[in-house]
Amino acid sequence: MTWDLTTRRLYLCTPLRDDLCAFVAACVEGGVDIVQLREKDADAASIEASGIALRRVCGDLGVPFILNDSLDLAVATGADGIHVGQDDLSVEACRSALGSDAIIGLSTHEQAEFDAGLLTSATYLSAGPVVATPTKPGRPGTGEAYVSYALHHSERPVFITGGVDADAVPALYHLGVRHFVVVRALTESSNPTASARAIIDAIARCESS
What we know:
Order of helices and strands: EHEHEHEHEHEHEHEHH
Low-confidence stretches: none
Helix content: 40-55%
CATH architecture: Alpha-Beta Barrel
CATH class: Alpha Beta
Radius of gyration: 16 Å
Largest sheet: 8 strands, parallel, barrel
Strand content: 15-25%
CATH topology: TIM Barrel
CATH superfamily: Aldolase class I
Mean pLDDT: 95
Number of helices: 9
Structural class: alpha/beta
Number of domains: 1
């Protein structure tokens, strides 16, 4: 299946959790329209089992499911694609293994990385974190200048990471951001449906103003 990411606005990146499938379904109900499973600490078998279940949920809800980092697990879970970082398997190796319809995302944190990413077959690029975030320990915020550069130099979707919540949306939207990656605003929320809807509503208000 070929996915069009140009109209997708809210990208959830989540680790494993006991209520993973119910949590993701609640986020999608609130407006999340792309989901990545990003788990750095669990064993491969646990990620695979949860990924297979989550892939089924995402498929039923009509949202693409992305697996972080591992090509083997992306294949094993039947993921719609993979997201890789600068030190992971190359975009072209992933493309060769997963095929032309797969979603392949690439993280970038500075202009040189972004420019190099534009020369690959990545479906989308991420830029950030625009501000420092606990989900990327030790990585400083890129600042608005880099985000603005990325947005103005790509015809492919650019998903912005770092501190995204409903309050952060207006300033980011003013920069040109149209695709938002969210982690803590949903994973730490007691009501992820309402939290996702608040972000979507903030985007909608920006679009109509």
